[in-house]
Design goal:
Chain A: It is found in: Cell membrane. Chain A: This is Sugar ABC transporter permease. The complex is a heterodimer. Chain A is mostly helical. Chain A is flat. Chain B folds into 2 domains: 66 residues, no CATH class; 214 residues, MetI-like fold. Classes of the chains: A mainly alpha, B mainly alpha.
Chain lengths: 302, 291
């Protein structure tokens, strides 16, 4: 009897401690998403003098035929796919380096953290300066090589602008992946490698047969986090290209922002939010499935 | 790559070590240059005169006559206002986040509640939401409540976006604390709240500092809410203010002042990274791996 009472008391206190945080989370995360679902069924723009008028699924009809949306989705996919792939490869290299013991490792680790810590919006400007057509340091370095075009237009050219964005993003987020992978590397016992080496495995073989399989959970988690962030990339693009030239680097988030802030088309903006959200959740569910395949319990310790 | 070789290489003298360590050091140098060069280039630009900035070919090692403080003085006293705004918003949102997150994390670590795994799963998923999905709904609220151009319009969302990480990191920390501590405290007649305040919180301070640093950095760097909810110049935070210098004129982008603003506006983060790199690494891994 008293046991039950104590437990009940404890649970009550638990809810008391938990509720304020939950309310804030619901308020800032759940409400805006729910509100977007609701608002997406209305037309609310300058045409309706910013009054919501119920219009059913018309926003979604419009979205299906909206070439600009599909183009932005394509741009986002290209950006996400290429940058995450590069980040993963480079992050793995960095993690392997940091996992070795050498003099000055602490300093190297500190310098690797710097890109992660600096504000994306501010460093986007730094990258725009680096890729400047006239005075940019990239063009200067390239011009010192023979047979290389000088004065390359970077941010004004559709493909190269995307390339510049990807380079900046890889710079910014590789440290995050490296740190996650490093933690995984450090948890792999050394004797596994020794045993494998005794069996005659080359370093490359032991990387493929020991390191990669044991690192799968960290890789999937890093991919998941990076996918979500990259899919919603806003500040870097806004600052470096603003979505240009001619929409060539316009990501979904830039399009959403422009729809809401520039065109004041709230109903359609909400529909864009909903579709992006659904796509993201689908990807997360897929990743969650892969995680459970990797036999990792997401909700608790391992 | 050659981890397996590592242990062997140490026992092998001379030849093997040198080829291995050459690869390693090439990697290390590449990594350091890759990470630092863009930031250092911005630092160098901030000290170059306008003539030196636009000189061709590019000047990598400026002489004294190429250097100037002008870009820093051109930022003016107004720039300190932005630093103050960022510091205030980041600090208050971090404190609010820890104040709400720590009790929640304790509960999720120790007290069995119905629906607990659902809550935890929700917190995990929410930590993946891009902020661009949230700003529309929040903008409506901000307008409705009349919080536009108010620090609260940033402090509250910043606390929320840092809550998932805070809860996950602190929860994994609480799980590692020995349960005996609490049991003996209860034996001594402490209530749950007393026990939290007198025993758990003091023990938790290192973990609070770790998560606090992460939350502070994320708040300092946030862009889209700051861009949307604050329009009055005197209320702007660093990322928006610096981006604005870039957008002030279309034809002649003032790279010198932007660079100087970058240096001043990111100095606090640099200090945090230099002093707390170990904790930051712990925080990032605890938030993602244990979560």
């Amino acid at each position: 009897m008293t046991q039950d009472l104590i437990r009940q008391r404890e649970q009550r206190i638990g809810w008391l401690l938990l509720t304020p945080a939950l309310i804030l989370l619901l308020f800032v995360f759940a409400y805006p998403i729910g509100r977007a679902f609701f608002l997406s069924l209305f037309t609310e723009n300058l045409g309706t003098q910013l009054q919501p008028i119920f219009s059913g699924l018309s926003n979604y009809h419009r979205l299906i035929e909206d070439g600009r949306f599909w183009e932005s989705l394509w741009n986002t996919s290209v950006f996400t796919g290429v940058s995450i792939f590069c980040e993963l490869v480079l992050g793995m290299v960095f993690a392997l380096i940091l996992n070795q013991s050498f003099r000055g490792r602490g300093l190297v680790r500190t310098s690797a953290l710097l890109p992660w810590a600096l504000p994306t919006a501010v460093m986007g400007l730094a990258w725009a300066w680096i890729f400047n057509d006239q005075y940019g340091v990239v063009n200067d370095i390239l011009s010192r090589f023979p047979f290389w075009e000088t004065n390359i237009t970077w941010l004004g050219d559709p493909t190269r602008a995307m390339l510049a964005l990807i380079v900046a993003d890889v710079w910014k987020t590789t440290p995050f992946i490296a740190i996650l992978l490093l933690a995984g590397l450090q948890s792999i016992p050394e004797d596994l490698y020794e045993a494998h080496a005794i069996d005659g495995a080359t370093p490359w073989q032991s990387f493929c047969q020991v390191t990669l399989p044991l690192l799968t959970p960290q890789i999937v988690i890093a991919l998941l986090f990076r996918f979500a962030q990259s899919f919603g990339i806003f500040d870097l693009v806004q600052v470096m290209t603003g979505g240009g030239p001619a929409g060539a680097t316009e990501t979904v988030s830039i399009y959403i922002y422009a729809t809401v802030r520039r065109y004041l088309d709230f109903g359609y903006g909400a529909a864009l939010v909903v579709v992006t959200f659904v796509l993201l959740i689908l990807a997360v569910v897929l990743a969650g499935f892969l995680l459970s395949k990797a036999r990792i319990n997401v909700s608790g310790g391992r | 790559m050659a981890i397996a070789q590592e242990t062997k290489a140490h026992t092998h003298p001379k030849m093997k070590i040198s080829s291995r360590s050459i690869v390693l050091w090439v990697g290390v140098v590449f990594m350091v240059v890759f990470c630092l060069a863009p930031a250092l280039w911005q630092v160098l630009t901030s000290f170059k005169t306008n003539a030196a900035i636009s000189a061709l070919p590019t000047i990598y090692f400026p002489s004294f006559s190429d250097l100037t403080w002008d870009h820093y003085t051109s930022l003016g006293a107004g720039f300190w206002r932005y630093v103050f705004n960022s510091a205030l918003v980041s600090l208050l949102s971090t404190l609010l986040c820890l104040g709400l997150g720590a009790p929640a994390a304790y509960t999720l670590a120790r007290i069995k509640l119905p629906g607990e795994s659902l809550i935890l799963g929700g917190i995990l998923i929410v930590s993946l939401f891009p902020y661009v999905l949230l700003f529309l709904g929040l903008l409506e609220i901000v307008k409705f409540v009349g919080l536009g151009n108010n620090y609260l319009a940033l402090i509250v969302p910043y606390s929320a976006i840092n809550l998932p990480l805070t809860i996950l990191v602190l929860r994994s920390f609480f799980q590692q604390l020995p349960r005996d501590l609490e049991d003996s405290a209860k034996m001594d007649g402490y209530s749950t709240v007393q026990m939290l305040l007198k025993i758990m919180i003091p023990l938790t301070i290192p973990a609070l500092v770790t998560t606090g640093i992460l939350a502070f950095i994320f708040a300092w760097n946030e862009f889209i809410f700051a861009l949307t909810f604050v329009t009055r110049d005197a209320m702007k935070t660093i990322p928006v203010a610096v981006a604005q210098i870039g957008g002030s004129s279309v034809y002649e982008i003032p790279y010198g002042p932007i660079a100087a603003a970058t240096v001043v506006g990111t100095l606090p983060l640099l200090v945090l990274v230099l002093f707390f790199q170990r904790r930051i690494v712990q925080g990032i891994t605890a938030g993602a791996v244990k979560g």
